[in-house]
Amino acid sequence: MTDALKEFWCDLATELFDQKGLETVFSHARNVVTGAVIVAAGTCATHYGGDTPLPGGWSLHFAGYAVTAVGVLLLLLNLLSGLRSLARRRHSRLLRALTILLYIGLSVRLAQVLVFVRAAL
Fold first, then answer.
1. pLDDT digits over 59-117, tens only?
2. Cα–Cα distance between 37 and 117 in angstroms, integer?
3. Residue 86 in domain
């Protein structure tokens, strides 16, 4: 049992540090934060009641929905990129499903936190 555990930790360390797994995790985390900030900015803009000061410009309400859609698209693309990486490593379907649920939950929660922080300022 201990040999299997040692082999698992050795394989995990090799994958994280030697095969740039940790770099990939931080890259995806940075992309999630960026997407969540864009979604939060769009969401805040949709609740703004004023008109745009520029003539011929979009109303801020409509532009907020467009920005939110772009942020959601970026989050989905990052999720698909991560799932593609997991598929290449032949992880189980259960791990992929858990990854999707965790990713969506963290993205929504992060956007909520950013909106709350913005509202408090």
1. 777 888 899 999 999 988 998 888 887 777 776 778 778 888 888 888 888 888 887 77
2. 11
3. yes
Reported pTM: 0.73
Q: Residue 120: CA atoms inside 13 Å, Cβ hemisphere, count? A: 6
Q: What is the DSSP code (8-state) at residue 17?
A: I
The number of domains in the chain is 1
d(CA 27, CA 23): 6
Report the 10 Å Cβ neighbour count for 82: 20
* DSSP class of 18: I
Q: Identify whether 3 is part of a domain.
A: no
Residue whose C-alpha is closest to residue 76's, from 36, 109, 43: 36
| Structural domain harbouring 66 | 28-120
